[in-house]
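Thread amino acids onto this structure.
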């Protein structure tokens, strides 16, 4: 059983030897770099007055411990139970993907999401910042890309905006890894470059019908890519960049007369898949020369491209994710699993349960991959075809917390009923902290583990001034 100790500010006639005056934080290392290997473990002791004791090897472990402490103290409480906590994450990579290309999120919404990530102890913001639909990143090297590719001049992220997001996230122990997907997903913005780098596509009659992927057969493509990724590295600072590589329309390449002529003089390139491999090899060599490491969607691995040893492969196709995870880790590459955690697919009811029940190591060789670190972690994805600032936060939270708990907690922590109680409590804490997280239950009073409550004492009250026309 836990006894209680007093918090500072309680009645003066209480026993002073039982009153906590504050929290003493001890950090062993001065290393404040945030990487895939950063130690986030901590020890928290709430037992002996006058100070709570928090010990960690790094400042980021201390941050996680302080977050735990903040959630143990109820608003307005005068006492706190005694605890001895030794804690560390199960996985080093605990990510959340946001997509600002289909709909552009204001910075405040991104900051709000980063705060919620920190509350749930997530540590990677995968920023899918551009795509076919828009190019909101304001490149200084190629300013014409955002001028032509953003929805409007207001729907952009300047380099100063990006740095603000990076600093905000770093102060909460979260890395920002950008994704600039190529050679596919490259319409808006890329089509403003002159000389052009996109492939012209043709129908069976030889009529031009639009543009497709980057043209892998011209030097101009690689000049642009090298300059853009060099800027990305200088702005985002992280060792890793996500280069995409998924869903390339190879038939467009094969329809193009110039590319077909090029292939005749390069007999080793026979198919669309060969063209993609040719492009990827040149891209990865550019990144290697720039000192960047990279995360790729699984297609690049599936196609047999030569990858650097520290490549991270993100497995996103749900239908065969166990087979692909087995193959990736058997080949010795780090992996991130996102396939079962696409939050943009919504359904009626408690859909968080299916995320919670997914065991990431449930594939051939999974236990060994986790032990060796090749199963690096998990990522929840919120693609924004039908999501913008109006519904991004409530659609993401608290559902994301179900995956965050599986990514942090020991493999043995799997009970759905107890998890529901924790997520319900966490949802109420999010509301108290200004995060408009949606309900996880239907409003009826329930028995254990929810202790009869499916509502929050402090319900969400949006800021709104009615009667603007008065």
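Threaded sequence (470 positions):
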């Amino acid at each position: 059983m836990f006894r209680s100790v007093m918090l500072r500010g309680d009645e003066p006639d209480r026993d002073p030897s039982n009153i906590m005056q504050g929290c003493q934080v001890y950090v062993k290392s001065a290393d404040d770099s945030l990487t895939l290997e950063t130690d986030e473990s901590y020890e928290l002791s709430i037992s002996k007055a006058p100070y709570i004791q928090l010990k960690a090897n790094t400042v980021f472990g201390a941050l996680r411990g302080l977050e735990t402490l903040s959630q143990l103290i109820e608003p307005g409480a005068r006492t706190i139970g005694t605890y001895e906590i030794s804690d560390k994450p199960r996985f080093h990579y605990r990510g959340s993907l946001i997509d600002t290309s289909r709909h552009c999120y204001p910075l405040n919404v991104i900051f709000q999401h980063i705060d919620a990530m920190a509350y749930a102890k997530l540590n990677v913001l995968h920023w899918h910042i551009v795509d076919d639909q828009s190019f909101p990143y304001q490149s200084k090297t190629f300013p014409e890309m955002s001028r032509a590719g953003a929805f409007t001049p207001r729907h952009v992220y300047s380099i100063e905006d990006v740095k603000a997001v990076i600093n905000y996230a770093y102060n909460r122990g979260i890395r920002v890894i950008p994704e600039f997907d190529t050679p596919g997903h490259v319409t808006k913005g890329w089509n403003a470059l002159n000389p052009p780098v996109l492939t012209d596509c043709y129908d069976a009659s030889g009529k031009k019908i639009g543009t497709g992927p980057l043209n892998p057969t011209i030097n101009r493509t690689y000049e642009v890519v090298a300059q853009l990724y060099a800027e990305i590295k200088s702005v985002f600072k992280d060792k890793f960049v996500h280069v995409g590589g998924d869903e390339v329309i190879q038939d467009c390449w094969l329809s193009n007369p110039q590319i077909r002529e090029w292939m005749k003089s390069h007999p080793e390139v026979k198919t669309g898949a060969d063209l993609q491999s040719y492009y990827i090899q040149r891209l990865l060599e550019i990144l290697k020369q720039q000192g960047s490491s990279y995360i790729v969607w699984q297609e690049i691995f599936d196609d047999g491209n030569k990858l650097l040893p520290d490549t991270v492969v993100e497995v996103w196709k749900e239908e065969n994710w166990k087979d692909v995870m087995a193959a990736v880790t058997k080949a010795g590459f780090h992996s991130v699993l996102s396939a079962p955690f696409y939050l943009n697919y919504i359904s009626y009811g408690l859909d968080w349960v299916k995320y919670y029940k997914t065991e990431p190591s449930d594939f051939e060789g999974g236990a060994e991959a986790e032990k060796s670190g090749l199963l690096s972690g998990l990522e929840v994805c919120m693609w924004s075809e039908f999501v913008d600032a109006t519904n991004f936060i409530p659609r993401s939270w608290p559902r994301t917390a179900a995956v965050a708990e599986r990514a942090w907690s020991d493999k043995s922590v799997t009970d759905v009923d107890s998890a529901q109680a924790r997520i319900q409590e966490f949802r109420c804490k999010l509301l108290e902290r200004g995060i408009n997280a949606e309900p996880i239950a239907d409003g009826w009073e329930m028995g254990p583990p929810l202790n009869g409550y499916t509502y929050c004492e402090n319900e969400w009250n949006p800021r709104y001034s009615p009667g603007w026309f008065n």
